[in-house]
Each structure stands twice: as structure tokens, then as C-alpha cells.
Specification:
Blueprint lengths: L9 E18 L5 E21 L2 E7 L13 H12 L5 E8 L9 H17 L4 H12 L3 H6 L2 E5 L4 E4 L6 E7 L6 H13 L16 H9 L2 H4 L4 E2 L2 H7 L2 H11 L4 E4 L6 E5 L2 H13 L3 E7 L5 E2 L2
Parallel strand pairs: 1-8, 3-4
Antiparallel strand pairs: 1-2, 1-12, 2-4, 2-5, 5-6, 7-10, 7-11, 9-10
Helix pairs in contact: 1-2, 1-3, 2-3, 5-8
This protein binds adenosine-5'-triphosphate.
Adenosine-5'-triphosphate binds next to helix 1 and helix 2.
Length: 310
């Protein structure tokens, strides 16, 4: 993306996320599940460039396969721009140019990051100055993961994952991500989990009132200690993702054998996140995973949420 091409654009960068803990409760009538999760924003980014325009349009390029990204009103970033225009009575349009670094349908909230970035970019482009509380409200209307992409850092998500409480996380956590060529549909993975629970093949937390982030997870984050965090990480969606994609099990075992402290499916998958003891250990794991032909990326958390770059 050349600087000249975007010299008149507002540039916002937003991160992808990992769910360090993902507890899934009962399914509600609106189709959503109660969640108790801990998000961490990691250094894999979406860059959104917003330029003034008469109408609303979007273009998408990326370091990842972007062929499945819709370019019409199904695109979450475009919906975000329209929602902001409507809410703030703006009669201008915008062209959004998105450069994706987060895998599409990878369980890392790339679309949500685009939506958060579009909100911040359009707010700056149009001078609407809605303020973070209003932007957060709009974000929650766009999707359960959008508020966190605005917020960034490390945070506890309850409700549908959209009610955020900042979590104290000291130091830096090094992760190696293993990307998959084929994405997984989030609704399909939740649906599979529901069916598995009905058949008694996955642990159900029926007492959803008890759905909470284990204190040990929060303590390990506060301590900034990956060795303390590794044994307490868990994802209720993992059995459903692995049932859909048995190859993930082998990848999870390989990363640990190669020196990662632990591995977890990120969100609804299929991206796998390996937690490593530090930057050097992560580089070694990344290299070994690459040697087996896998696409592996070394990232770190926590990083800030959607940020105006210029
Ligand atoms: P989730 O936030 O549910 O974990 P994910 O990270 O697995 O999602 P995304 O890449 O955010 O996956 O998008 C999932 C689907 O949403 C895509 O398959 C695509 O059809 C649609 N979508 C809408 N807007 C976007 C966008 N800006 N970028 C990517 N996908 C989008």
C-alpha cells in the first residue's frame, strides 16, 4: 500500500484477537450463547484507509486469502460506516480500503476488527466526534466481538462477549499462530457444540449463572507469567472445531512437542494459538512448524485496540 495512494486517507489499524479463555454457556432464543471469555489483542492487524466519497464502497486486499470477503453490505466494515453515518446524521459517503492481515473466518475476529477500524476512521473523517462510549454502543450493535476490537489490550467479555471489563495483564505474551487455508464458520461451530452437548459428548456448563472466568486465568495474566497461564487456558469450542477439522489435533500436538507451553484453538477456529515461554522460544517453534509446511506466525500481546495512525 503506497503512501502516495493513501496520502489523503484516514488510516486506522485494528488488531486480531485470541480467546485465552472461552467458556460457552447456554444458547438463547436469539441464537446467541452466554459467554465468559478473556480476549487478548495480538500484533496481527487490519489496516483500514478511509477516503471521502459520494457513496459507500469498499476494496479489500491482504496478506491472507481475501476471496471470501464480501464487498457489498454484508461486509461488517461497510455496515459500520453506514451505521455511524445514520446515527450522526452524516450525508457524506466513504470509500474503505482494507488491508487484511488477520485470516478470514479464522476465529481471530478479523471482520470485527475491520468494523471497529471503520468506526474510528469514519468518526475522524467526518468529524463526528461521537466519543468512545457512543462508539462502543455502535460496535456492540454490529457484532459481539466488535467492542473488544475497539478496546484492545486484555479484557474479560461477558454477556455475548460484548460486555467488557479490562483485565490486568503484565508484560508480554508470545504466541505462534498456525493459520489454515480453509476457514470455519462461527455459527456452524456453535451449532456443532450444541449438538455435541445434547448427545453428551462435550461438557456442558448448564448452570450458566456459574459461567465465569476462572480466577487462575486472571491471576496468571496479572503475574505476566506464560508458564502459569498455559495450564489454565481452555476453549469450550475446541472439541467442536476439532470434530470438524481433525487435522487440528495433530497440529496442536506438534506445536507442544516442538516446545510451545500449550496450544489452543482460537475462538471458533481453525487458527491455533501456541503460547510460548518468550520471544526466542516462539521463534524456534515458528521455525519448526514452518519446516513441516505449515503457515506459522509469531505475534505478541497485548496490543492496543483500533488506533488512528494518520
Ligand atoms: P468471529 O469474529 O466470528 O470469530 P472470524 O474471525 O472467524 O469471526 P471473520 O474473518 O471475522 O471470521 O469473518 C467471518 C465471515 O464474515 C466471513 O466468512 C465473511 O463472509 C464475513 N465478513 C463480513 N465482513 C467481513 C470483513 N470485513 N472481513 C472478513 N469477513 C467478513
Amino acid at each position: 500500500m503506497s503512501f502516495a495512494r493513501h496520502s489523503d486517507a484516514v488510516h486506522v489499524r485494528a488488531p486480531g484477537k485470541i480467546n485465552v479463555h472461552l467458556g460457552v454457556g447456554a444458547r438463547h432464543e436469539d441464537g446467541y450463547h452466554s459467554l465468559a471469555t478473556v480476549f487478548q489483542a495480538v500484533s496481527l492487524y487490519e489496516d483500514v484507509y478511509a477516503t471521502a466519497s459520494d457513496g459507500f464502497s469498499i476494496s479489500v486486499v491482504g496478506d491472507v486469502d481475501v476471496s471470501e470477503v464480501p464487498l457489498d453490505d454484508r461486509n461488517l466494515a461497510l455496515r459500520a460506516a453506514r451505521l455511524l453515518a445514520q446515527t450522526a446524521d452524516v450525508d457524506q459517503g466513504v470509500h474503505l480500503d482494507i488491508r487484511k492481515g488477520v485470516p478470514v473466518a479464522g476465529g481471530m475476529g478479523g471482520g470485527s476488527a475491520d468494523a471497529a477500524a471503520a468506526l474510528v476512521a469514519c468518526d475522524a473523517l467526518w468529524g463526528t466526534e461521537l466519543g468512545s462510549r457512543r462508539l462502543h454502543e455502535l460496535a456492540a450493535r454490529l457484532g459481539a466481538d466488535v467492542p473488544f476490537a475497539l478496546h484492545g489490550g486484555t479484557a474479560i467479555g461477558t454477556g455475548r462477549g460484548d460486555v467488557l471489563t479490562p483485565a490486568l495483564a503484565r508484560g508480554r505474551f508470545d504466541w505462534v499462530l498456525v493459520l489454515s487455508e480453509q476457514g470455519l464458520s462461527t455459527p456452524e461451530i456453535y451449532g456443532r457444540l450444541d449438538r455435541m452437548r445434547m448427545r453428551g459428548r462435550a461438557l456442558a456448563d448448564d448452570a450458566t449463572e456459574l459461567l465465569e472466568v476462572p480466577p487462575a486465568v486472571l491471576q496468571a495474566l496479572r503475574a505476566g507469567d506464560p508458564a502459569e497461564l498455559a495450564p489454565v487456558m481452555m476453549n469450550d469450542l475446541e472439541p467442536a472445531a476439532v470434530a470438524d477439522r481433525p487435522d487440528l489435533e495433530l497440529a496442536l500436538a506438534d506445536g507442544v512437542r516442538m516446545g510451545a507451553l500449550t496450544g489452543i484453538v482460537s475462538g471458533s477456529g481453525p487458527t491455533i494459538a501456541f503460547l510460548c515461554a518468550g520471544p526466542e522460544a516462539a521463534r524456534a517453534v515458528q521455525e519448526e512448524l514452518r519446516a513441516t509446511g505449515r503457515q506459522a506466525l509469531h505475534v505478541h500481546g497485548a496490543v492496543p485496540g483500533a488506533q488512528l495512525m494518520g
